[in-house]
Amino acid sequence: MKWNLLIAFLILSLVSCDQRPIAKVVAIDQNGLQQALVADNEKIKVINFWATWCAPCVEELPYFEKIGASYKNQVEVILISLDDAKNITSEVQPFLENNQIRSQVLLLDDPYAAEWIPIVDQHWDGAIPVTLIISKDKKQFYNKALTYKELEDAINEFL
Predict the structure, then answer these.
(1) In 3-state terms, what secondary structure has residue 6?
(2) What pairing do the DSSP bridges indicate for beta strands 139-142 and 130-134?
(3) Domain of 70: which CATH number?
(4) Is 13 part of any domain?
(5) Distance between alpha carbon 91 and the CA centroid of its chain, in Å?
(6) Strands 139-142, 26-28: parallel, antiparallel or unpaired by DSSP?
């Protein structure tokens, strides 16, 4: 019995080693988006545009979570949801809780995509998932879903 408890404790300790709290989604407008896109002098920003209804987006979210935990001193992960703002409490926040999402989550509540898409990248056609990685010296836009290896390789190009 003692061994079972010890094993259960060890498994729970390993599973819960990321001590960051579950994310609370925050709605932003175009001005908030522009602020999120400002390079940080201290950390590399990894900004992913996604939605709960986008299967490739959901598939790659664990990669961003792993990067955020593994590179927490060098990288800031920001997940920008393009879900409908009316679904924040009914769909987006429960999704974050069910999937243990701990990275910063913003929901872009701005219907004028033609205005804000070029702010992110001139070549973006609006499809998701997409990822923007920025530092004080460099910017790279990925117009596709990323594997963990691709994401980690991209981060390492900035380090």
Answers:
(1) helix
(2) antiparallel
(3) 3.40.30.10
(4) no
(5) 17
(6) unpaired
